[in-house]
């Protein structure tokens, strides 16, 4: 027997992009350009959407609910997320939505952190300008994802964003695109599986 | 010979307080009450001053310049500072002021971090709800201070802010007051030394 199954839209991969000064950005702009327009990718650029920090929490939560995976892309500001992304964490990842009783909206979703730093890799070392490897600053972001029940993907880090050679930037951009293509392919499979089970 | 020396005002200790929901606060309110009004303490309550995130950068920088020491007091939000304090870091601790060429305004000032957590101490452990000791989340804040050339004081941490017994809270409040009195006394001495040198 032949069963006709209407094509099912795969859940999108949600890219939450946070750059306070995109015009001054070299690396983040290049990275973003490498993935923008990939089918299934939903981009939310926080500083474009909310220049006054007035985050639309229900809209953000709706976008998160439908996503297969979540990407946080930003330049590092004071060893962490720029303030609007921190505000997004504080407001959107609310109790009862992202954690606590009934807070399972993000449970099992994959989370990819894409971060650029001004300092080069050598700056992130005991003898460097930032005194510690980047891994000692990342628990704040990583545990935010884990506390919401998300699966933490190996982060994509680009050091020396202002100075790296174009070829290094191109490599990073290609890597980023490949990582997102993997996530989007997985989202496709997840969509089919869900449809099959329905 | 008798030299008359006019009394010299000591530089203040600047308390930057950041609580998004002070009405819901138990611990931070109690801690704040324990130190408010101490002579020489200058309080800037960020969520009262800037409910719309429109930080007056020159005013904040002026307050920092005249301070002997800086206190950052806040409840922990997503393993870090609440977003308005993060915004304060991003905007106020600017290149040319706090770091980089000519950025020596904070150099040598003492910095005290006063933080409360909702989870109790046991939650901050490998087997606990937050998976890591608090010390693995603090480098983000500590290195922010160090990068500005500040001296990092041993932080004052109060766990389980919603649930601890009143007596524990009282102890923490007294400890906090004692720590600030020490800083204020040191500020007095610094004021005299500066006056003597003038």
Write structural notes for this entry.
- By secondary structure, the first copy, chain A, is an alpha/beta fold.
- The first copy, chain A, is globular, with a radius of gyration of 18 Å.
- The mean pLDDT of chain A is 94.
- Chain A has a single domain, classed as Flavodoxin domain (Rossmann fold).
- In chain A, helix 5 (139-147) links the parallel strand 4 (110-116) and strand 5 (151-152).
- In chain A, 37% of the residues lie in helices and 15% in strands.
- Chain A is built from six helices and six strands; from the N terminus they run βαβααβαβαββα.
- The A-B interface holds A 20, 52-53, 77-84, 86-87, 89-91, 93, 129-132, 136-137, 139-140, 143-144, 146-147 and B 20, 52-53, 77-84, 86-87, 89-91, 93, 129-132, 136-137, 139-140, 143-144, 146-147.
CATH class category name of chain A: Alpha Beta
Q: Write down the Rg of chain A.
A: 18 Å
Oligomer: homodimer
The major β-sheet of chain A equals:
6 strands, parallel
Q: Tell me the structural class of chain A.
A: alpha/beta
Helix content percent band of chain A: 25-40%
Fold-level CATH name of chain A: Rossmann fold
CATH homology superfamily of chain A: Flavodoxin domain
List low-confidence stretches of chain A.
none
Question: Any idea what the CATH architecture of chain A is?
Answer: 3-Layer(aba) Sandwich
Most extensive interface: pair and counts?
Answer: A-B, 29 and 29 residues
Count of discrete domains of chain A: 1
Per the principal axes of the C-alpha atoms, what is the gross shape of chain A?
A: globular
H/E element order of chain A = EHEHHEHEHEEH
Tally of helical runs of chain A = 6
Strand content of chain A: 5-15%
Terminal CA distance of chain A: 18 Å
E-strand count of chain A: 6
What is the typical, i.e. mean, pLDDT of chain A?
94
